[in-house]
Amino acid sequence: MSRSTSPAGRPSVVIVGAGPRGTGLIERIAANAPELYGDTPLDLHLVDPHPPGGGRIWRAGQSPLLWMNSTAEDVTMFTDESVEQDGPVRPGPSLAEWARAVRDGEIPVAPGPAEALASLGPRDFAGRQLQGAYLSWVYERSVAALPPAVTVHEHRRRAVRVSGSHDGRQQVHLAGRPAPLTADLVVLTLGHLEAELKPDERELTDFAARHGLTYLPPAFTADSELSALRPGEPVLVRGFGLAFVDLMVLLTEGRGGTYTTGADGQPVYRPSGCEPVLHVGSRRGVPYHSKIGYEPDGERPPLPRFFGPEQVDALLARPDGFDFRRDVWPLIDKELGFAHYHRLFTAHPGRTRMNWPDFEEKYAVADPGSAALQALVGAAVPDPADRLDLEALDHPLDGVRYPDAEALQDGLRGYIEADLARRHDPAHSPDLAVFLALLSVYGQLVRIGDRGPWWHGFFSYLASGPPGPRLRQLLALSRAGVIRFLGAGTTVTADARRGVFRAESASVPGESVEARALVEARLPAATVEHTRDALLRALYADGAATTPTGLLAVAPADGRILDRAGRPLVLGPARTGSGPHHPRLFALGPHTDARSGGAFARPRTNAPAFRQNDATARALLTFLRDRAAPPAPRPAASLARPAPTPEDSHAPDQ
């Protein structure tokens, strides 16, 4: 029987965060251990108040109405031949393949929602509960793949602090547990963070309290207290991304509303009478672009072309650094344009006036945004609808004005209908090429570090939008009057004279909407200094470095947490001395400047998260192999995994 803390001399790693990122790291430890670590004993402590695999975001205890925004065939937790890594590839099923194998009896699991599993096809969007069941299976498989001498301990608690010396073992303190866990190495695989309120959010909270209003600050929507939003009342909503889509679902279908199919084949919403009226706006004033609804075919653009390892090396080698918008964005602009036009010329040559080799040669030497490039595109691509204009994509309502709110509703419905039609029509397959280029760019940007909030928002807007069916539901809700559009450049003010929140937008000058409820439909900013996570706050106080936008600074090579001098962070009195700085603290995930777009990924896309997991796993195992004291031999009987009981191997420490 194993213990909750590692015996003296027995190597130990504490992983804080049991969601998909922690699961992916365990999968890579299992894959690399035979080469780097052999059959030496090792304790892996997994710390998270939520069950491992799905963690908080993908937990079973959430509404079955909430979906993923990726198709089942585009979700995997396993490496493949595309992943640039030093460790071995350990293939495994995508979500779609897993669901089929479970249905066929090839994988014996209790997967959760049986009806959703039975009907899930490769191009369907799974519910989050079902994705959580897949992640739980991946976790169990990864644990089973560990060498027999590796023992996993689950602790269903929160980690609140790490302490230790600069050259010794660390102590990880857990809430409600007197004795800390002892670790040679600590890895933070935290997901989305909760944050303290910003000054403007505190002001709105105080205003709401003084006037008897409702204000819901940024949060993971499934955790928000939505019962305060009363039936029939107007609710202002800031944010038009995926958090809004969840809000829309929970306040409509989640309150008993239903959809039927109209004569035109489109959904028609039947209200229950329990819904509020959502007035939604944002900076752009439009929802994220629909997921593309057709299969890729034909030749793919050869990526990377203008933004690859060579260009990133050159940026990182600049002695005076670089600016994202000035130095990086032009390269991204050119990369996305190359993908777009490659697809247009090779798949739809009838819509061009030049052969591809000639266009490519001239495109390669033209500067992004230059008059020469615009002239080239104008001469070679006659239809403006076939030209890529990233600025117009990012600001679709700039300069568009509507005479009144009703005209805005008609205009926005027309915009969404056009987006749905385009994103489901392979005649516009250059859009898919741009999507693939965005994934390629994101993979390169991981090496650069903090890119600021604009890039992540732009990427999500173009590449990580909602499923098409969700936007069709949005249209139905708009026609039913349950959702009202506010427009672009939405601003909300606290009207002290009338004791309400007031929203205005640039799209309908002179008009405003007032309400007694305001919802911020977005996730909190992942800043370390202002997170509610006690462990990260303590590390920041102990000298962990952050980027200008507040992300935790880590070494690009393996995820080591860095101090403010750019060295691996160490704890204890010698932190600022000249002694050895051993890499004992690591971090992976969206709270770091190596954020990679997601803990799982599309198959065969050289996913950054998989590369990072592999590099960190190899760094951990190499450190333990080279530095850990030889452990005492274990009794032969202890190699068998005992039945799960509290404090036992692979059992939760409640």
From TrEMBL:
Chain spans, region Disordered: 593-654
Protein name, per record: FAD/NAD(P)-binding protein
InterPro entries in the record: HpyO/CreE_NAD-binding, L-asp_N-monooxygenase_NS-form
FAD-dependent urate hydroxylase HpyO/Asp monooxygenase CreE-like FAD/NAD(P)-binding domain residues: 14-192
UniProt-listed Pfam families: NAD_binding_9
Domain of life: Bacteria
PANTHER family, sorted: BLR0577 PROTEIN
